[in-house]
């Protein structure tokens, strides 16, 4: 009987970045034939499996459909391999909640304006916010000569200033986003790569 079963997909994981989520897995290798995959999902509210938009597909990734865009829903997914009439066992994921389990990327840096005593910084959030979201930007900055002493500032504005700087001095900064939702969850995003600018002469 076991010879009539395919090996189950391995490394089955939900990948989620800035609330764009997909299920990924490692390909199942067989001697001949093209292995296809089928993905189902169920939500915490309804305990029944539904088809995703990935039924008998060849690729090893299945993006979440628009119907699963609710960030607060608990979603469980499962995938199996199929070859003709032969199938593998289903492999289920752990429950996934985007609001808790997504990875938030750094904000997009639009512009930096150097002045003699400050840097004026404009950023765009890494994702479109929803009602009840509160975004805060954590900015750490340092004088390039003394990388050890970092200063921190926090702001909820997308246009903000790092002040009290020395003139004609190179300063570097990194920014990360903290998302606070109306359900009082705190998600801290990834830090941006350091960006360095020299203040002007007054």
Automatic annotation (TrEMBL):
Ranges for domain Fibronectin type-III: 103-202
Signal peptide as annotated in the record: none
Record's GO cellular component terms: plasma membrane
Superkingdom: Eukaryota
Molecular function terms, GO-annotated: cytokine receptor activity
Name of the protein this chain belongs to: INGR2 protein
Gene source species: Nyctiprogne leucopyga
Recorded name of the encoding gene: Ifngr2
């Amino acid at each position: 009987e076991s010879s009539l079963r395919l090996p189950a997909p391995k490394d089955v994981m939900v990948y989620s970045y800035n609330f764009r989520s997909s299920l990924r897995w490692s390909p199942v290798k067989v001697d001949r034939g093209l292995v296809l995959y089928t993905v189902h999902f169920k939500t915490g509210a309804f305990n029944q499996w539904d088809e995703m938009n990935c039924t008998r597909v060849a690729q090893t990734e299945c993006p979440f459909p628009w119907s699963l865009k609710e960030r607060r829903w608990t979603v469980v997914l499962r995938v199996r391999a199929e070859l003709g009439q032969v199938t593998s066992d289903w492999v289920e994921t752990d429950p996934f909640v985007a609001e808790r389990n997504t990875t938030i990327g750094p904000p997009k840096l639009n512009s930096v304006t150097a002045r003699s005593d400050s840097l004026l910084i404009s950023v765009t959030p890494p994702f479109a916010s929803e009602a009840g979201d509160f975004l805060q930007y954590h900015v750490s900055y340092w004088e390039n000569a003394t990388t050890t002493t970092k200063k921190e500032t926090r702001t909820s504005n997308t246009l903000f200033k790092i002040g009290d700087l020395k003139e004609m001095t190179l300063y570097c900064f990194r920014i990360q986003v903290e998302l606070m939702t109306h359900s009082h969850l705190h998600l801290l995003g990834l830090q941006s790569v350091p960006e360095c600018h020299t203040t002007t002469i007054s």
